[in-house]
Amino acid sequence: MRFRSQFCLGLALSLSFSLLAPLSASVLAQAPVPAQVPAPTPAPRTSFRDVPADYWAYEYISGLARFSVISGFPDGTFQPNEPVTRAQFAAILNQAFMSAQPFQVPNERLNATQPGTPTFADVPNNHWAASYIAKARTAGFLSGYPGNQFQPNQPILRVQALISIANGLGYQGGSVAELSAYRDAAAIPEYARPGITAARAANIVVNYPALDQLLPNRPATRAEVAAFVYQALVTDGRAQPVAAGARWNKAPITTLPTAAAGFSFSADGQRLLALTTDGAKLQIWNTQTGALINEITADDQTRFDGAAISKDGTKVAAIGQISPTNTVELTAWTIEASQPLWKKTISRAESAIDGSQIAFSHDNQRIITFVNPQQDGASAPQLALWNTANGETVQSLETSGRFALSPNGQFLAIQIYPNDLSGRVDLWRLNQSGIFEYARTLPPEDVLFWGMDMVFRNDGLLNVLTRSPYDGRLVTWNPQTGTRVTSTELPADRSDDAIGLSSDGDSYFFGGQVAGARLGSVKTGEVQDWPSGYGYRVAFSDRGNYLAILNNNPNEVGSALPTPSISIYAKTAH
Hints:
four-stranded antiparallel β-sheet, 13% helix, elongated
């Protein structure tokens, strides 16, 4: 049976700072300050000086503050990264779910213990949170430890907070197998798996900055508890949802001190490969800590022109040109090794190559390359697939252009640019022999050479961004049928020279000298102006939860970056 209570938005009662603010053990041991309803009721504080509007949990915290569920410190701070004790969590549960009407215990939870009486051996009658703990226990939100202990001053863990809300509100549903979506699923205690599954199904789980990392056994912060509780109010229809996937935190989670000609993420966004602007080094970075994991340096005769990291983050591959012969080679390494796995010749060129493309397939079994060398005075583009394990050629295609590979590996999309600067996309399909065959050409769209981008979405559909001098249009195609699914106008500018599309089908990035930088959501139509300048490269992680931006203009007015760098940003959505 789900416990429900009417939540009154006009609630005047505010929790005292001793209830919600983690001050000190001496304060927590004091007798409670009786809650009073002032007349007239002052407006609740809804903003805090340490929770700016671009903070990842801003909307959760300000929302609960408007409802008087949470409050801050006398100095105007909220201290979002501080832990929440079990007693404080009980007080928050009471204020969010039980204080707007006389407390009613569901029939199946009736017992001899009544709210306001001591329920645990370590929670005496005069403990400031005794009544809140008793009510939360009777309602099924909280339970104790062996020996009838509650440990009120112990920080509540993320897993405990989530299953507490799920149990108290009677959440059900979901499949335990879905917990495999979290890369730390093995750390979820066995007893908590049904509750976390139900919490996930109810959409109250909020992870930041790694959306696929639950961190179940870490103490929950004030910001995280605010997010969990707010999402529960959304699920119960008592609060407006935070737009999922619409906003990114403008404060980077890390900034990597390097300038790069190109970079790519591992599938989970935890690692980033950067090719330095001089073409001399491949750097593998931890995007969460900013640590340099490894660096591969080219020899004196080699200049790297394109590089990629495998989806599992264990290998890298690079296209390099050898002087003075101008031989173009493909080389692969494991990230931990200093010696290459293998090296293969792609072609020879009459001059320096520029703008090569390389990528790993989603199963990491293939490497795809596109190079455009000059041979006999003419451009000679080449697109090929290679075996990741040994470097053997799998296929050389008869057509060439910049490409995108579908997540299931069944479709290869190739951009074709005739001499008239119009553009088209050819689709190739994998046959039963493991070879790509031409399937169809998508109906042409007006497009300029410099304005086109495309990416296969995680659901298998293909997003193609077409450009005219004054606007942009994102067209979604079904590669199975070649039919147009949707067509959406995007606020592009003719000066945009940086374009990026995310694989989740929602986010896009435009950057140019006139219009500046913008990060938008296809689903909600919201566009965030970005604080950086123009003239940089961008890349999204495959899951659409991380964004890397190369800041090439550190000397512009207002910039705080002393040197070119790569900033890593994360989505604020749950």
